[in-house]
Amino acid sequence: MNKATSPRYERVLILAPRGRDAVVAKEILRDAKLHSDICLDIPELLQQLHRGAEVAVVTEEATRGDIRLLASWVSSQQPWSDFPFVILTEHGGGLERNPAAARLVNTLGNVSFLERPFHPTTLMSVVQTGLRGRQRQYECRRLNEELESRVAERTGELAAANHQLINQIKERENVESTLRQMQRLEAVGQLTSGVAHDFNNLLTVVLGNIGFVEKGLAEAGLDGKLTQRLGYMRAAAERGARLTDQLLSFSRRQRLEPRPLDLNETVVNMRDLLQSTLGGTTRIETRLQRSLWSAMVDPTQLELAVLNLAINARDAMQVGGSLTVQTENAVVGPPLRPEEPPAGEYVSVCVSDNGSGMSEEIRAKVFEPFFTTKEVGKGSGLGLSQVLGFAKQSGGGVRINSRLDQGTSVHIYLPRAEPETAKVTAAPLRAPWTGAPRSATILLVDDDNEVREITRAMLRELGHVVLEAGSGGAALDVLQREAGIDLLVVDFAMPGMNGAEVVRLAHGRQPNLPVLFVTGFADRGGLAGVDDAYIVGKPFHYEELASKVQFALRGKRAGNVVPLRR
Questions:
Q1: Cβ neighbours, 10 Å, residue 65
Q2: In this predicted model, which residue has the larger pLDDT, 401 or 528?
Q3: Using CA atoms, how far apart are residues 292 and 280, in angstroms rounded to an integer?
């Protein structure tokens, strides 16, 4: 059958094996400028039909033999095709005169009967009618193919749009989930930082008074059970101070002192500490990458983070477990979880164990503060929260890989130090003030009465004259009234007017007035640029306060003023 999309010319096939019917029909069609080919039998007709034709003129007697092959070709036509046959008959097409006509209609389908003898015009008319019908079939096929093409194209577009929409929905769900997690962590972080600040105020009062009681007992020559109990109280209070450090680390409000650091050297130096902490039954292995980049990180906080991960790993392993600490350079892509770092170059330290691992359900909660799978009293649930807070505050992130019964790997990603920065050696630590203390007039500003009282007592113990104010406004009034104030000791976090605002206004009146900040947490924005020597963190010890007060007073004699970013 004809498989061409459109004929190059109209071709008529003639099958009339007897007499001169074939020749006569060909001449008539030639006069009508129609191309025709004569076939000798049914097989040749089928061959020509496969090559392509538009109409077939067949004598009735040519169909009286076996035409099953021709019937098979007719039935195998494509849906758009209904090939036209013109049957030259001697008895017409009526069933009453030609019973065979019904068989031919059923077999060939699209049949027109022309009774012989016929006029040439009649033959041309019937053939041209068949040609026009065939052309309409071709046009229907073209329109159908065009429609199918458009439908397929539109279906593809809709499928692509649907796929894109599904991806956008999934991406949006991921973003919303990440946002909810970040908002929850931020809300908890704000809560914990506030709790830590208030708790540090309480610990300042507790530790300060314990110090005075210990000093009084020592001066009185008393010792024994009472002193021992005071030691227990101090140890418990200092343990509480460490807990608040963890809370501040999670809320990313601890004060970091990042510098270029070789993590390989840090891991090597920590090996003895890790071994003593984990015990002799735990095997420790280190895998250190050569040519490791320098990381920009606070060394002390990094050691605490690694130690936290090691302790968690120990608790997840049975006796005789294996711990691996690994370093490597890492180039990471966009984060898939809120705890992961942004895309960029990092130095990674990874702590891995072969312990119990964790399920995906637990994996989703491990960074929430106070969440723990340990027994009551075995852990605070702040270990991984502290690690995450430290990593995020350092400009990196954390990634966890874990499978049940196969172990856990925690990667800490720390920002790569710039090559120029890495070459700069760390500044030497500021030497503590060892000169003889001198008496000074100090303005103490703190909104907490108990903290202010214990700080005032310490300062007076050091021999200073102390003026007090319970708010920023009251402090400015004192500065307006009193002359000769040598030092401003101010709490950073106060309601209404915070310490930084008090200092700005105070410097507007006395530009050379030295300042010492006392704070339960060091806000990175508010105290950016302030040297750590001018910051006393709560809870503080008597010796630390004495040293930093004397250092600030020495700075006044040298003409130094605390820089504060506006």
A1: 10
A2: 401
A3: 29
The first and second tokens of residue 109, run together, are: 């389908």
Compute the chain's Rg from CA coordinates: 48
Strands (E), 128-263: 259-261
For β-strands 487-491 and 441-445, DSSP reports them as parallel
pLDDT tens for 41-79 read 999 999 999 999 999 999 988 888 889 999 999 999 999
CA–CA distance, 565 with 563 (Å, rounded to integer) = 7
pLDDT at 94: 59
Q: What is the pLDDT of residues 521-543, one digit of tens each?
A: 644 456 666 777 888 888 888 88
Give the end-to-end CA distance of the chain in Å, rounded to a whole number: 89
Q: Give Cα separations from 516 to 107, 235, 450, 526 (angstroms).
A: 110, 27, 19, 14
- Which pLDDT band holds residue 97 (cuts at 50, 70, 90)? low
How many other C-beta atoms can be found within 10 angstroms of the C-beta atom of residue 535?
18
Tell me which long-range contacts 165-172 makes (C-beta under 8 A, separation of at least 24): none
Tell me the two tokens of residue 380. 């605070």
**Residue 129 identity (one-letter amino acid):** T
Which token pair is 232? 């227990």
Distance in angstroms (rounded) separating the CA atoms of residues 47 and 176: 68
Contact 200, 538 (CB under 8 A): yes
Alpha-carbon distance 520 to 530, whole Å? 16
pLDDT, tens digit, 9 for 90 and up, residues 361-394: 887 777 776 566 655 444 444 567 778 888 888 8
Predicted structure pTM score: 0.47
Run of H or E including 15: strand 11-15
**Within a 10 A sphere around the Cβ of 106, how many other Cβ atoms?**
10
Whether residue 284 contacts residue 275, with contact meaning beta carbons closer than 8 Å, is answered with: yes
Q: How far apart are CA 249 and CA 253, in angstroms?
A: 6
Distance CA 382, CA 364 (A): 15
Whether the CA torsion 526, 531, 533, 534 is positive or negative: it is negative
Cα pseudo-dihedral 542, 548, 554, 558, rounded to 10: -170
Buried b or exposed e, range 273-305, using 16+ CB within 10 angstroms: ebeeebeeebeeeeebeeebbbbbbbbebbbbb
Residue 11: φ, ψ to 5°: -120, 135
